[in-house]
Amino acid sequence: MYYKNILPAAALGALVTLPTLANDKLEEIIVTSSRVEMPLRQVGTSVSVLNGEDIRALGFNSMLDVLRTMPAVGVSNTGGAGKVSTLRIRGADGYRTLLLIDGIDVSDTSSPQFLPRMEQVLSSGIGRVEVLRGPQGLMYGADSGGVVSMTTTQAGDGFGGDISAEGGRYGTRQYAASVGYGGDSIDGNLSLTDYDTDGFNARTDDTSLRDDDGYGNTTVHGRLGWNATDSLRLELVGRDVDGESEYDNCFNSSFLPTNNCTSEYQQQAWRGGIRHQGERFANELAYSESDTENRDYSDGGFAFGGEGKLEKWSYLGSFAASDATRLVYGADWRTDTRDDSGGRQQRDQDGYYLEYQGDLSNRFFVTAGARYDDNEDFGDYTTWRVSGAYLIPASSGEIKLRGTYGTGFRAPSLYEIGYNAGDFGNGVTLDAEESEGYDLAISWFGNNGLYLEAVYFEQTLDKPIFFDLVNFSGYLQGGGEAESSGVELIAEWPLLPGLALTGNYTYNDAETSDGDVAARRPEHLANLGLTWQGLEDRLKLGVHARLARDANETDGEPLDDYEVINFNASFTLFQSLELFGRVENLLDEDYQEVRGFNTSGAAAYAGVRYSF
């Protein structure tokens, strides 16, 4: 069809945010890069941002679908909502990426590789997301993927909130409510989301049951803050997620294959912190804990499961020596615990870091820092990062040149170690993975709101750990380096008042340590969005396209190339009542992101939201 021919030529980018004036964008506050607030003009790392308005306009129920619109983010889904999914940043596997929600590390330590369960995160209640791309071990102890940091909706002045109801194809229903209060000394927000879908048949080869594989999720998230004084703040965050998913292709108690499979996921997490902001010094001490439980059933009987706990004390400090110099420093003390039928495992890891931030002539900004980690099982590791940003004024805007070089490491998970040492394991002793990478970028911030950026990146992962898919003997470790390199192009262009074109394109050449093409990493990823606001901003329309090209399966066979078109709309009847809707996969594209697993056909959804 004609749209398939024009999309590759048009895809110089993806939907990011509605463009603003260049000066506003340069002054946008970024937190994830160095764990402290910094204006974008000073940031040398690769960070993408979506705010709550952007997330709501897209309309997706899952944050996975929101994140896949951002630069260099790829997703592999196995059969619909709530099914096991992998998020990759610049080709790095999801378990090499850190996910924070209101500062809580929500990694699932009951899972094989301590990955964040992105498919269990709903978009309702999320007010902002920042994605930091590349090896970022310095501030977080994270690995080659990067950091995804989400913050929930913040309360405005006084009392307010909203309630919404939505429904659509595949028997999908979502009810959500949020209430908040913002005062001089007390502020807080509480959100509740209940999502349920009948889904569709997850696997193409399910010819026995031919059933729909549904998913349900109930998420409660609360945040309470107290400004005890002008400089002292206490904050408490709590989160509870309960998800249940039906899926295909598991084994029953007789070790026979079946498509009658169910998984249950529960996570309770909380964080308490105290922060002091002085004239030059700032200090924050926090404790967070997340408890996760997974249970899988086949043909109605228990198949396997596990429990995990992640406990973390953290300290973050900063000292502004002058207007041009700041030091950021801190420490993390964490304990990982995993408990299943094979026994209980536990491990401690301590990390300490220091970063220098310098403003040279108000045009040249640099950071340099190092981190020391001591892992109970694998000893000590030192990682580091340097970055720089230089701004060049022009008559119609500003040019920004930037670059960064960073390193990271990942210790093998408790499950990987335990599996290899168990009765069915291969006995292979694993070592920690180490990563490094750099990127170079040039950006244009026009006074008319035009924003363009081109990024080149390279990163390597030494001694990558992977599961033996041939003999199923356990986890193996490559002797060489897995490599990923490519280009990211990002654009935001206000064509006319109320009309904006936005997009990104990523070329990614990802190889395994054996030199083979890395599986399920499209060489070409692109998103393109056209948005319009009219009738005094009461009517909002958006058309968004996503493209993926040249991806292979684990056996080297090619996966489907595809282009998916989504449409969304909203109309404000009056100040407090809004009608909204969307059509996903508007042209009913038939494709697979993982071979053998179905994806959604054309699906329409509509809802209503009342704000107070």
TrEMBL record:
It is a multi-pass membrane protein. One of its GO terms (biological process) is siderophore transmembrane transport. Residues 40-147 form the TonB-dependent receptor plug domain. It holds the Pfam family TonB_dep_Rec_b-barrel. Keywords: Cell outer membrane, Membrane, Receptor, Signal, TonB box, Transmembrane, Transmembrane beta strand, Transport. GO terms for molecular function: siderophore uptake transmembrane transporter activity. Residues 180-586 form the TonB-dependent receptor-like beta-barrel domain. It comes from the Bacteria. Residues 1-22 form the signal peptide. It is found in: Cell outer membrane. Its main location: membrane. One of its GO terms (cellular component) is cell outer membrane. Belongs to the TonB-dependent receptor family. Hemoglobin/haptoglobin binding protein subfamily. PANTHER family: HEMOGLOBIN AND HEMOGLOBIN-HAPTOGLOBIN-BINDING PROTEIN 1-RELATED, TONB-DEPENDENT OUTER MEMBRANE RECEPTOR. This is TonB-dependent receptor.
